[in-house]
Amino acid sequence: MHRTDARFxxxxxxxxxxxxxxxxRAPVAAATAATVLAATVLAATVLAATVLAATVLAATVLAAxxxxxxxxxxxxxxCIPSLLTKHRGTVHIDFWESMxxxxxxxxxxxxxxFDASQRKVRVSLxxxxxxxxxxxxxxxxxSNGQLPDVVQxxxxxxxxxxxxxxxxxxxxxxTATHYKTSDFIPRVLAAYKLNGVQIGMPFAxxxxxxxxxxxxxxxxxxxxxxxxxxxxxTDAEILKAHGSGVGLKLDPWHLETWLASANLAFVxxxxxxxxxxxxxxxxxxxxxxxxxxxxxxxxxxxxxxxxATGPEEYDNLLGIGSGKYAMTIDTTAVLxxxxxxxxxxxYPNVKLGVAPFPVxxxxxxxxxxVGGSALYISNRQxxxxxxxxxxxxxxxxxxxxxxxxxxxxxxxxxxxxSAKTATVKALWKxxxxxxxxxxxxxxxxxxxxxxxxxxxxxxxxxxAELNAEKSMYQSGVSPSTALENATHQIDQxxxxxxxxxxx
Length: 503
Known about the structure:
Strand content: 5-15%
Oligomer: single chain
Largest sheet: 6 strands, mixed
CATH superfamily of the largest domain: Periplasmic binding protein-like II
């Protein structure tokens, strides 16, 4: 997905295929002092920019009156399709997008096809390189007035962009054009709804999966990949006894995903979807079991952790290539790159398997949260631009476009009809792992828990969550104490955000 860096923006397309390929092909080397220093400076710069952007956002929200009848903080401009129908000439719109390399090339092809399909609208793609950059630039634009017609932001930005009061909910355009949504995966739409109103339109969707080396699991007597967290822990111990183990990326999103798989919310007010989140509610028996199991794996040596950013961020994947690990959990956004590297013959002892995320328990009907991003329409632009933006968004989310998008990027098709196309069927036949992520979102419960949490200061919340988890692994803090500390700190972060923004 939310987070001050591209990794935490997640879950998604923030990885470039070129960078990951280079990482997988290169030997694992210790970071130089210069690299560490550069990473430190970058982290400090991003943090400073985030604080500044939050201040700008607060000032902008407090200066703007609430829109009557709109979701809290949403723009009030109505979508008027007749404006585009009656317009003579061409409407030019800007799209701030966050795709790179192969994903960016596929988006360009789709945009060119849209431009060629009609004469009313022309789209200029403005590449921002990462979700973090896009969000920071968008927040700055709230003050300087430099905002796009369409912007691509991750799921954890939903509350922030809504609080900015700068977007026209796509629900307005859906209603005005009698747009049908029955073909969409329900949970994908739900991820970008607040108080029952569709704020953003989902576009690039991903999810977490289990990646494993089929050869190692078979050799060690594990006949099928683990389906639950408990089986994940048991299999890790078996792998350890035979000389490998699990690569565990330090990603706080995992706790939220395991909670959702148990159909449990992360914050109050129905996960922040029926009122602003003011309290963390995850310090439960289930969360203690989740972190307790993970802590046991690390302390026993069955699993090793690595950061989600910096020179060691790909160690969980590199470890599968080297034989150090036999299993890891990562986003489906890496599948294309990993398969590309394996096809080059660089790791002949690896036969990649892809399985569903190991849920908390098969006895509980939860679900996997939606990762990725959505498209938002700025209400700071003329009304006709907003209609033109909806026309473009509708094209990107059409059955054919979503099939082309899935094939070109590996993202999950968000329409059920797209999954039935020859394009996607051929993709899934050649790379069955892609189908796993789709089936995860189609199956399970559709609830406030599985739609994901809606939190304004999500970056700070994720940082607090990550620090608590690291204290458990690195400083010997008990899982229960770590969860208690995380809950307390997150409550303070939420209260501070509410005071800045105004509830």
